[in-house]
Amino acid sequence: xxxxxxxxxxxxxxxxxxxxxxxxxxxxxxxxxxxxxxxxxxxxxxxxxxxxxxxxxxxxxxxxxxxxxxxxxxxxxxxxxxxxxxxxxxxxxxxxxxxxxxxxxxxxxxxxxxxxxxxxxxxxxxxxxxxxxxxxxxxxxxxxxxxxxxxxxxxxxxxxxxxxxxxxxxxxxxxxxxxxxxxxxxxxxxxxxxxxxxxxxxxx
Length: 204
Prior knowledge:
- The protein is α+β, with helices and mostly antiparallel strands.
- The chain has 9 helices and 5 strands.
């Protein structure tokens, strides 16, 4: 994982060096969202990644996102938004958010699905991950996982994904105005270059 992260840093640095000479075209590399979704962030540019734990492309994209978001600092307000294609995965993310263990369990959930080939739609297996990596007692996890708060967050996520007009994942949305994905940008990794371009537009 450390070797992959180091490679990500090199690739993103090279991308940044070429950034000033790069232009991206609306309708080709990104699309305007017909009815913009109001951003609650005022001091930085909001960037939202729509993802699912069950999506192998999201899994492969995640190390690049991890490096990218660390480089942005205060310039960007980054947020993950689960696509509710598989409700159990969205519930896992929001349970982690409420329990304040997203950083601890995010990658282990991905790994359990895509490396260990476990069925992480099962509550008992999710509870094990939360306990092992996040130190969350099973009863605490279960009470939050099936809570009204999680159900409410999922409903809100469904509404936002629909408003963003997402057709595939991973997708990234900038300031609630612009949407790009791997197909438009050329690849999932090049998507971050398009996002950087859109962040610059919003920052100026």
